[in-house]
Amino acid sequence: MIQRIPEPELMDDPAQALAYARADFSAPHDNFVALFMERFGTALDGTVLDLGCGPGDICRRLARALPDCKILGVDASRAMLELATADTEKHALSERIGYHLGYLPDARLPCRHYDAVVSNSLLHHLKHPAALWQSLQKFARPGAPVFVMDLMRPASRAAASQLVEEYARGEPELLQRDFFNSLLAAYRPREVRLQLEHSGLAELQVETVSDRHFIVFGHLG
């Protein structure tokens, strides 16, 4: 098994952010929402917090799937949030979705606690993974559902190249490079379970859901 190779935490280069925002992530993002619904249903109301929201595609999909909810996305990349805001206005969802610039776990958000907390593809960017787990504990209200989905590090560089070829063949070279680097920076489910135990979140479940993704989910006590 190859060792993890960290990548930069922030995607704050405008060209990199734009390439990511315009890529076709409909399959994994639809799966994110579907897996969330399978575990927590559709009756949720209140405000959902999206940690590391990037250009806001997950926020918009959740807003459509959860009509009784508002969504707040937080990200430390100003370039990403500019794209998120523009696309949310374009889709006429600005009344239900807001964005906040902040660095986790120290971001100062509008509310102290949120009714659900989600995150997609943030963990592999973090130099210190505890920042994500601390943020779940800090911002989720007691009993709130939490749901995290992220990439899973493959067994070899060759396996990573195969995943890039299969899922990003038609994307720009910049995005293919970023996807490859993200795969090498990702954690394995066993490593994530250890992180959860060390963070006092052993009650959360870890499940592999595809050849490149795992999820972490449950209710915070």
Give the arrangement of secondary structure elements.
Blueprint: H1 14-22, H2 26-40, E1 46-51, H3 57-65, E2 69-75, H4 78-90, E3 97-101, E4 116-120, H5 130-139, E5 145-151, H6 157-168, H7 173-185, H8 189-198, E6 205-208, E7 213-219
Parallel strand pairs: 1-2, 1-4, 2-3, 4-5
Antiparallel strand pairs: 5-7, 6-7
Helix pairs in contact: 1-4, 2-3, 6-7
- Listing every helix as H and every strand as E from the N terminus to the C terminus, the arrangement reads HHEHEHEEHEHHHEE
CATH superfamily: Vaccinia Virus protein VP39
Structural class: alpha/beta
Q: Please state the average pLDDT score.
A: 94
Rg on CA atoms, Å: 16 Å
Low-pLDDT parts are none
Count the beta strands. Answer: 7
Can you put this structure into words, describing what you see?
The chain is α/β, with parallel strands linked by helices and 221 residues long. The protein is 41% helix and 19% strand. It has eight helices and seven strands. Strands 3-2-1-4-5-7-6 form a seven-stranded mixed β-sheet, with helices on both faces. Strand 4, helix 5 (130-139) and strand 5 form a beta-alpha-beta unit. Helix 1 packs parallel to helix 4, helix 2 (26-40) crosses helix 3 and helix 6 (157-168) crosses helix 7. The mean pLDDT is 94.
